[in-house]
């Protein structure tokens, strides 16, 4: 699957980012819309992944504090290579911004996966929108970042 990776800002891509996140988080996962969208969106770095036909299939964001989140992938596109490209693009931005560490807030079933990627739990498990989560952090030097080419 050939993917097109776009580094976009909230102002210019808000409609596309909102549509993807609503499909995944609000309609599929039933997370309240007022919880899904927050003031961090305007300051965050956003990635938009398109398939070879140019359709938007995934998005994710990196906050200025280095938190990777709001990873939304359409159900029909949830393949390892989509997640890998999305994550690599967000890590490339973190590296470009001179960030030393990145963090994620994952569901409990994702803890083992993130630990295999070099992340370590930070703090206690907490509830977010009715879902138990764990904050995890990792030095950016832990990653072997694949080359990512952004399309504008």
Automatic annotation (TrEMBL):
Pfam families: Acetyltransf_10 (PF13673). InterPro entries: Acyl_CoA_acyltransferase (IPR016181), GNAT_dom (IPR000182). GO terms for molecular function: acyltransferase activity, transferring groups other than amino-acyl groups. It comes from the Bacteria. Gene3D superfamilies: 3.40.630.30. Residues 3-141 form the N-acetyltransferase domain. This is GNAT family N-acetyltransferase.
């Amino acid at each position: 699957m050939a993917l097109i990776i776009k580094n976009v800002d909230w102002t210019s891509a808000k409609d596309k980012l909102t549509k993807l996140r609503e499909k995944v988080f609000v309609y599929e996962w039933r997370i309240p819309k007022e919880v899904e969208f927050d003031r961090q969106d305007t300051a965050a770095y956003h990635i938009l992944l398109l398939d070879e036909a140019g359709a938007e299939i995934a998005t994710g964001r990196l906050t200025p504090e280095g938190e990777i989140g709001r990873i939304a992938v359409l159900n029909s596109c949830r393949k390892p290579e989509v997640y890998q490209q999305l994550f690599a693009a967000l890590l490339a931005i973190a590296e470009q911004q001179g960030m030393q560490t990145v963090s994620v807030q994952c569901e409990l079933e994702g803890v083992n996966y993130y630990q295999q990627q070099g992340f370590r739990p930070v703090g206690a498990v907490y509830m977010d929108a009715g879902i138990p989560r764990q904050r995890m952090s990792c030095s950016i030097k832990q990653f072997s970042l694949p080359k990512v080419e952004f399309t504008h």
